Prior knowledge:
- With about 160 residues, the protein is mainly beta.
- The chain has one domain: LURP1-related (Porin), CATH 2.40.160.200.
- About 15% of the residues lie in helices and about 50% in strands.
- It has one helix and twelve strands, in the order E-E-E-E-E-E-E-E-E-E-E-E-H.
- The longest helix is centred in the C-terminal third of the chain and has 21 residues.
- The protein starts with a strand and ends with a helix.
Amino acid sequence: MQLYMKQKIWSIGDHFTVRDHQDQDRWFVQGEVFSFGKRLHIMDTNNVERALLWQKVWSFLPCYNIEVHGIVIGQVVKDFTFLKPHYHVEGMPLELSGDYLSHEYSLSENGIPIMRISKQWFTWGDSYLLDLADQADELVCLCIALAVDCAVQTQRNSN
């Protein structure tokens, strides 16, 4: 299954629309403007919040909690590396590695690929292609992809 995540460029805060391969809306992501650390609300097409992604502010490296129905199910943490960005997901047996320059990331569970994230070039705003192995992992994979985008954006802003 493929999802296309597109950031709305003329908006205050982070706003993403996520569509499937048939160009049908699947998810809406809305960031809070006046919050201490990033907070992204992931809503379905009925405008019901299904997940919340929030930044753990007092951490040395970027760290984002994934909350579903009020329960933190995992935490995306950037590992300290020099050449290639590497993330791990605490609370889940998932590994995320990638190439910062080409914005290509892969998520795997015990060596089995679950998702591939590819940044689309030459677009207005950030755009990503999420290639999922299983539709059942859609919400968690979307949250992880958003956490990577937030971590990259934070690193870009600090440089």
